[in-house]
């Protein structure tokens, strides 16, 4: 019997034993061994849990796992060009380099994540930079990435990347996807050098579809998120750097 605990030397002995069998049987046995080895590389829980259940398991881990993660971001609002080429054609009196920067739509967001009640987003994009800070006392939005009392005001929302700090089960309810069948498992990926499990949910109304995709590490860190409404806002975040260390200084609110 082949098992996950077979060591390197054991595999070599096993392969030499089957080498004397007919070629067809050798082929079948090698295929079986490769399948077992591939399965051993994956989280065993992911192999037995239904996709929605697995997604919510990783959600619980995410909301219990402090981390500091830098993401590459994209954002497109309703009515904006759907490609850099289309965007460049709409610009006037702008040099090429500035136009490329504006039309790339690519930004960066640093998330200091200390669940359940503290997080900070430092966001930089072609449109500018700002910081969102959420602590038990409330949320503030500050100009730039330095929190200075004179540049901060009470925040009315969690910004364009609010889905990053929202529980997937709540998002599923919002898009009408509370039923398990709407969540499907996607291809596994490696993001920022970390193996990731991915999921997709599609909901919305008969007129407008709403699609959300998540990728989590085995320990529950959110590595990728796509949130798009047909004809509406589309946002993505993808991790480029991940640390499980969070600094208390990121959550200091300046005195007014």
Rg for CA atoms = 23 Å
Helix content: 25-40%
Give the overall pLDDT as a whole number: 77
Question: In total, how many beta strands?
Answer: 11
Whole-Å distance between the termini? Answer: 69 Å
Q: Looking across the biggest beta sheet, what order are the strands in?
A: 6-5-4-3-2-1-11-10-9-8-7
Main β-sheet description: 11 strands, antiparallel
Percent strand: 35-45%
- Following the backbone from N to C, one meets helices and strands in this order, namely HHHHEHHEEEEEHEEEEE
Short description:
With 256 residues, the chain is of the alpha+beta class. The protein has helices spanning 8-18, 23-40, 44-48, 51-62, 84-90, 96-104, 168-174, and strands spanning 67-76, 106-114, 118-125, 128-135, 138-143, 152-154, 183-191, 194-204, 209-217, 222-229, 234-243.
Could you characterize what this model shows?
By secondary structure, the protein is an alpha+beta fold. It folds into 2 domains: 8-41, no CATH class; 51-251, Lipoprotein localisation LolA/LolB/LppX (outer membrane lipoprotein receptor (LolB), chain A, Clam), CATH 2.50.20.10. 27% of the residues lie in helices and 36% in strands. The chain has helices at residues 8-18, 23-40, 44-48, 51-62, 84-90, 96-104, 168-174; strands at residues 67-76, 106-114, 118-125, 128-135, 138-143, 152-154, 183-191, 194-204, 209-217, 222-229, 234-243. The chain has an 11-stranded antiparallel β-sheet with strand order 6-5-4-3-2-1-11-10-9-8-7. Helix 5 (84-90) packs across helix 6.
């Amino acid at each position: 019997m082949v098992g996950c605990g077979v060591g390197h030397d054991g595999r070599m002995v096993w392969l030499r034993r089957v080498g004397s069998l007919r070629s067809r049987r050798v082929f079948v046995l090698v295929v079986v061994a490769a399948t077992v080895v591939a399965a051993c590389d994956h989280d065993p829980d992911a192999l037995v849990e239904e996709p929605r259940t697995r997604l919510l398991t990783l959600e619980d881990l995410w909301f219990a796992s402090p981390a500091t993660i830098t993401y590459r971001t994209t954002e497109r609002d309703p009515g904006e060009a759907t490609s850099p080429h289309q965007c460049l054609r709409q610009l006037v009196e702008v040099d090429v380099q500035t136009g490329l920067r504006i039309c790339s739509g690519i930004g960066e967001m640093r998330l200091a994540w200390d669940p359940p009640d503290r997080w900070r987003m430092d966001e930089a994009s072609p449109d500018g930079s700002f910081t969102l800070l959420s602590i038990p006392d409330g949320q503030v939005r500050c100009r730039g990435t330095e929190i200075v009392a004179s540049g901060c005001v009470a925040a009315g929302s969690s910004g364009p990347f609010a889905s990053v700090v929202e529980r997937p089960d709540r998002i599923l309810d919002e898009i009408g996807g509370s039923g398990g069948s709407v969540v499907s498992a996607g291809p596994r990926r490696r993001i920022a050098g970390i193996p990731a499990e991915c999921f997709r949910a599609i909901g919305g109304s008969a007129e407008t579809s709403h699609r959300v995709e998540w990728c989590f590490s085995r320990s529950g860190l959110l590595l990728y998120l796509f949130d798009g409404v047909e004809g509406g806002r589309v946002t993505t975040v993808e991790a480029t750097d991940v640390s499980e260390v969070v600094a208390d200084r990121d959550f200091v609110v300046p005195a007014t």
